[in-house]
Amino acid sequence: MKKIFFCLLLISFSMLAKAQSDSSWRFKRNNVFTVELGSPSNIYTVNYERLLWNKKRFKTFIEIGAFYFPEDLPQYCAPINANQLFSITHNCHLEIGLGSVFGNFQNFNFPLKNTDQFYRTNNLSYTPFSKIGLRYQNNNEKFVGKIGAILFLNQNSNFETLVPVEPTAYPPYFLSPSFYLAVGFSF
């Protein structure tokens, strides 16, 4: 009887014991500032992220950024997206995001029929995108690093604006990939 009681007592205490607490997996800082190269603007973006949901394995961020490039046709944009993080370890996370880039973009359009000329225009538009990557962020450190790939759903501006192009000559939408590398800090 003593052996059975001792085994039940041992099992009940072992059920209460945890190797690691949930708080060791959660981020202590809710804000992140990063500079992305090759980001949704294809050059650079300065981003601010806010942590909305902070669980052991799942974290949700909302991100907004800004980009400006002074040129003969100035470009500016503001990517806005939501990122879901899946924690692989305490400091390595799989990042999946969906969003859109709003801005004034310089487009190098497809050529008109029977010509080799590309037309440059500045259009106020939005471009939806999805991203996937890896993120290094330890809950005890301020450093944040990200690397990944972005897939844009671009619109061919010749399809609607330039009449001489045959509608079947070029698709109205096309996918274009890009890569990004970001460094920053959490606070």
How would you sum up this structure, described in words?
The protein is mainly beta and 187 residues long. The protein has one domain: Porin. Helix content is 11%, strand content 56%. The protein has an eight-stranded antiparallel barrel with strand order 1-2-3-4-5-6-7-8. The protein is elongated and about 85 Å long.
What is the CATH C-level name? Answer: Mainly Beta
**Strand content of the residues, in percent?**
over 45%
Characterize the largest beta sheet: strand count, sense, and whether it forms a barrel: 8 strands, antiparallel, barrel
SSE-based structural type: mainly beta
From the alpha carbons, calculate the radius of gyration and give it in angstroms.
Answer: 24 Å
Q: Could you give the order of the helices and strands?
A: HEEEEEEEHE
Mean pLDDT: 79
Domain count, please report it: 1
In total, how many beta strands?
A: 8
The proportion of residues forming helix, as a percent range, comes to 10-25%
The oligomeric status of these chains comes to single chain
Number of helices: 2
Distance between the termini: 57 Å
Question: What is the second-level CATH architecture?
Answer: Beta Barrel
Please list the strands of the largest sheet in the order they lie side by side. Answer: 1-2-3-4-5-6-7-8
